[in-house]
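Possible regression after last week's pipeline update?

I re-ran a chain I had predicted before the update to compare outputs. Posting the input and the new output here so someone can diff against the archived version. Not blocking, just want to make sure nothing changed silently.
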Amino acid sequence: MSMLTAAVVVVGVLCLLDLLLSFGIIRRLRQQNETLRDLREKQSAEEPPIMFTAGAHVELSDVDVSGALVGFFSPNCEPCKERMPQFIEYATGHRGKVIAVAAGPAEEVADMVVRLGEVAEVVVEEMGGPLHNAFGTTGYPALCLVDDSRTVVASGWEMSALPVPATR
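New output (post-update):
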């Protein structure tokens, strides 16, 4: 009987020790989560937007961007290669005009023009071109939605920055 009591006491002590260690780990994970959240907030406050943000008005006379989904892509950009299929899928559900800007020399963006051309009007221009300047684009990929009054509704470099498209 004394062996059984000793075993129960040992198991109880081990369970108590495990419980204390679990609470310590949970507390440490919460501290790390708060530290990461603070770091992300600090970084997002320091990073300039990749293009005009919501509420900005787009001034452009050559191309009608009213109600358009607009995407800027570069052939040398890894995130662009990841976002392009997502952009194409999103564009198929977009009710308005879709404009894709392929940034770079024509020979480098040829494949991009073909892929984007399935769902969008494709414009090829270098950084600093008229569309880049009209949208304040500073990097790639840059994505935005413009309303009928040429005001940016949403923008960012990830598809999650854009609202869920309405179905056709």
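Follow-up from reviewer: compared with the archived run. The longest helix spans residues 2-46. Marking as no regression found.
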